[in-house]
Amino acid sequence: MHTSKKPIGFWSAVSMGIGAMVGAGIFALLGEASAISGSAVYLSFIMGGVIALFSGYSLGKLGARYPSSGGIIEYLSQSYGSGFFTGTMGVMLYFSAIVSLSLVAKAFGNYAVTFLLTNEAEQLWRGFFTVGIIVLFVLINLKGAKDVAVWERITVGAKFIVLAALSITGIIYLDPSLLSPDNYPPNKDIFFSLAITFFAFEGFRVITNTAEDMPDPSKTLPKAMMTAILLVMLLYVAIAFAVFGNLPTDQIIAAKDFALAEAALPIFGEIGFTIVAITALIATASSINANLYAVTNVTYQLAKDGELPAEFGKPIGHSREGLVISGILIIILSLLFDLSEIAAIGSISILFVHTVTHIGHLKIRAETGASLSLVVIATLLSLIAMILAFVYVSQNSGHIAYILVGFVLVAGLTEVTLQKIAKREIKPRIV
After folding, report:
1. pTM, entire model
2. Is the Cβ–Cβ distance between 426 and 84 less than 8 Å?
3. Closest by alpha carbon to 37, among 236, 184, 179?
């Protein structure tokens, strides 16, 4: 294939990263984060962004050296070999991605029904919109990476403009007293809110899955990763100032899922509320689109390594059967389960996989040319964020530790079962 024909350039990769990050995280979870850290939530977004930047540096260096649509799966294989450990981490990453996508799909359904009159069929309509958006983007992804990239550039542009306008106008009219440090909660609560705010950044890893569709991944991938994270961090901090500078914290917490739209009311009135709500639909939709693309590439890599059934890697349309299988699993999860707690488990699991990936990077750093100190910092920050998130959710849900252990056990048992079915021998690390 000629490199000029590869569809994912710098801005397409940045758009996909922003599309994956600026989804349900900022729209659906801002109220939840404010319930922990109050008007100091912007500090939590800064900390989450810093963790993402260091992780992005490490993953970007790995992606530049090992360009692969499998992303983190490929990096784990290079560090630890294609064995039980790598397979288990891969299955955990896949489960986490499916859970996150289910949450985003439910967020889309919840926003969509706000445009309908409340009636007895509201639950039915919510399910219809949730399923419909997944089916739509499965079909779009089946047409190939070019259509995925085009859609991301359009939707990311639209939501970025609306959110930037809300942020700038909100900052112009903000009331400084609402942002006074006198109103901040204890410092530990600001750190604990990382359990939620990091989820608003974790979509940046999607960029690693675009490497095989990039003309020059060694230069484009790291640059696109850092650019996307920086832009999103600036946007989140600006949004936090705009929202908490115009509404009291208790009003934002009361609004919960509609905090951004609620913040538009005193500035733009009902029209502003509607525009932000529509933007929320666009944001969650583009997040689903970008993450479906990434999940398909991850499952293809796992199938190639024998860590998922071969069906996941078989071609269908301009994509692979893993896309359709994942779409079905997302629909089932989004319709049958309350995913708020499971999403927290997914977030902790992703931080765990990131930590393991950075540790593995230290083993092969001579191959990537990465800075030792920066990779060590990435490892420590991911580990600390994971511990903080675990402590917080454990304090609020006593049984969370058992669920997390169960999650790891299911991933391990799945890997053992698939290895036996595929009769795959463990391969040594290849460098």
Report:
1. 0.81
2. yes
3. 184
